[in-house]
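Box S2. Input/output pair 1.
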Amino acid sequence: MKIDAPTGLDVTGIRLARADGNTAVLTWSTANESQLLGFNIVRDDGRGRRQTVSPEIIAAELAGTAQGTTYRYADRGLPAGTYTYTLEVIRLTGRVARQPAGQIKLP
């Protein structure tokens, strides 16, 4: 697997929001999924702990097509703190592009 710098070509928008006090919700859209396999969500807690929080690859719903769609992932049960999220975009070739998703503070 090779990791690339963000390209912004596949993902058209990423939004991070708080829901229900201890849940971070990541929403993103794609413009074209012709070269996409899927996505991973990575969380950094600011104390050196970085982990993939999606239990498995989130499959691209329209993989292999020139169409796009919208995705939503809820990271639930988080303790109070500040978290930084990254969306990993996995291409059919196995290459991974990291897209910064933002930072959120949970009470």
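Box S3. Input/output pair 2.
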Amino acid sequence: MFSAASRRPDRVSFDSDNPAGWHLYSLTTPDGGPIPTTAVLKAETLQNTAVYEPAPERRFDPSFNLDTETFSGQVVLLICGTVPMGAQGDRM
């Protein structure tokens, strides 16, 4: 469901193409609701990272009795950061 592609040395994107009827919860899903999506890099290639996501669809979900934030269809999450001095390799 996920693929990671390096666009530039200081950016990594995570692309998700959710099939019809499926969705992905946003990184900012409120407490008390479903488990939010997390974006983690296992390597120390990027430092001082920030994660960006598009504006989610926000709707009341009676199962959780609160507004949930979701993405349907295709969504791209972007992780930006700085490459430390002396970093080597072609994988992030």
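Caption for Box S3: The chain has one domain: 2-82. Residues 1-8 have pLDDT under 50 and may be disordered.
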